[in-house]
Amino acid sequence: MDFGQSPDRTIPLLVVTRAVDPSERNPLRFHLDDFPFGGGVYVVRFANRSVQRLVGESDVLRIGHTGNFRQRFNSYGPTDVLGELNLNLGEVLGGKRKDAANVVVVHALIRFLSPPNEEEVLVDFYSKASEQDFLLKYVDRHLETPPLNFSLKGRA
To answer: Which H or E run includes 62?
Structure first.
């Protein structure tokens, strides 16, 4: 989707096994070595496919804002959350977990990135952008938020 400006940087989102001890309970993590430390708006999207929306299609999965890109994506992928992908999703969706939104985001991204799917997912970084503007452009075009954004609450 065209947000009216080019990203400062685009990086593939990769899931890797921790090199420390792959036999540990939670061996997965996001590969963040190339992620910038700065902040701004990020857009997580498919590289080669689109998702049907209420109006049209879009490759965008999530739009967010952070003060530190690397820390934000680390918070989406702490080993305790990644290791719990077999957890009771009813517990997550029923609001019994404080990090329910992160668990759902991580669960979806891991499913997209893992076999048999092995989708290519990219993250676009914008240091000088407004999350609200990006979300409003998305909603204006598709009449709903991206699939891994759960509301516009607090963004008015």
So the answer is: strand 60-66
